[in-house]
# Entry
Amino acid sequence: MIVGQRQWTIFVRPKRFLLLVLLFCFFIFHTVEAQSKLLADFGRTDNIELETILEQAQLDFVAGHSIDARNKLLHSFTIAPADFRPHLLLGIYYLSEVNHFQLADKYIMRAHQLFAAAWGSELDDSIKAEAHMMNSRILGLMAEAKVNLDEYDPALQIIKRFEATYEADWVATTKAWVLMKLKRIDEAIQTAQLGLMKSHNLGHVLNILGILYSLRNNSSLALQTFREAIKYEKLLGKYGQISTPLNNIGEVYREIFLDREAEAIFAQSLAASIECEHILTSLNLAILQIDELRLIQAERTLKNFETCFARFPARADTEHRALLALGYGKIALRSGKPVEAMNYFQQALARKQWFGKIGTNQNDVKLAAMIGLGQSYYGYGAVLKNKLTSGIANKLNDYLQGCYYQLKGYWRIREAQKLAFGQMDNFEDLYIRHSDAMIEYPSLGDLISSLPSASVKKRIEHLIDSETRERAKSYYQLFWATNLYSHGDNQKSLDILQQIFGSFRQFDRLASAELLRYKIKIIEAADSSAQQEVQQIVADKELLFSLSPAYFTYFNIRLPIVIKLPVTSNSDNQLIQGVTDLIFKYHFTTVKNGQNLRYSVEINDNQVSTDSPGIVIIFKENTNGKILASEVVARSANNSEISQAVDNFVNKVFIHHSDPTAEALPAVSFEEKI
# Structure
């Protein structure tokens, strides 16, 4: 059984609710009944300026003027550097309002030191109740800060220290989450189940328990538990957060291949998350759309998150910037923009990211970015090697640059292999749609294609034998076929590809594109002239182009076209012939009796005149007459300029043009029974 961390949200409270919690921590010092007693208990001095600053900062927080409150609290350090209260309030501010976890940890730890200096590091029963209440609050904030900083062992030690003296609702969820992060799953389940009997915050406990059930591959029980969590969250009214368990329901649906249901639930989760607390749901939805090659919609999904997040300028972006770059990199790669993809994947590798609230960790993002970067390098290398640059020197330079980038791609994939099989539990994410994984499963064959066939076969057979999801088996077979192809066993690879082709659904577009990529290369390598096979390869290429045009430039596949030339005897003939020769040099081909092909290239000079800029190259879909790309070649162009114009035309042809029509989403209710 595959056991690992999962990509889940935990108990992320709305920002305004967190501010209320923050203010409660401070408000106990300022109520009419409690002010004199509590401030005396905590060593209130006659420093009127300090007390005034604290009161004004409280009012600023209530009014939403958080920056003003922060500045007042920072100023208070010069007045009373040994008072723990300003440090604690700043820590909560950075934890809940800004999400700058390093600063939050710094201020909370300092508050703890100052509090301990005043009251002792270990409080006994003789200490007044107010001091114990404050000590418990500080310990809870320390644990939360450590979790957000991915420091799970220190967080667990703080929680155990808290449990030795105090009780609180947050303990069960936080401790279970930390234990899960440390891969102590059985202990986490026991902790969460115990929390059901002791906690008043049942929505949060049920949410983490649902995550743990899913980790044990009990999807039915996980879904039921998440739905119970939603019921309890709804009881909290505006303070409830149903978006978190909704997201987790969507992840379970996706894992069991109920894609339409998953998309519908992700949409509900986004609608319920009005404060854009985390990118995770947006990224989950975008990954689903990328797998279906709905790339424009996937980009819009991420842009919508950025637009929403921009409404909160005080918040730091360290919880999402690497994930956002990773998502955009995937979209650019599949859109036929390898240079843009390389830049995004490099950002994803370089940017700091915290994973405390989600199951994904640094290695998950690093692996996905490394694979994507390797694929981008390789694709860009192929583009350079097939450029139509005029001149021997330029052509040689492009070819060598292309070889260099493809070599970089090879080594980047090798580094990804070392990470996956060396540091990630012998690559647990090979389990299809493993929820914490950031990788693109349809193209995962690139990662294992160069591994020894015997070991890959053994691993794939084990996965298939233990798999209960029938749709997952087709992916494992695709990976196996990829490995066989890379080792030269083309016929066996082709047999597997033909066997599983019909098992992918209409919207499994990226998986279908991967399958067609290998099938086409194998059949073309056989160099068969049989009419039936020629017709099949044409149909496969036309289908591949409709799915993902970028595959043609990334993997040196030629698109069959009808060429339509003008009937003319004017001086443009030489230019037209030169353009035609370049078109068929690398990227396009014709077939015998190919008048019924789906795509055509038309060279148009019908508007030839003294003021005409030149001829026009048009790429058209014959079935509907839609023009997908065009480029003008000036009559005065030299050989280099002609080559550049045709290169521009090719770049326009083999990019993502439009999304397929999205299927209607089912009316999925999170309250429905399994």
User: Anything to note?
Assistant: Confidence is low (pLDDT under 50) at residues 1-41.
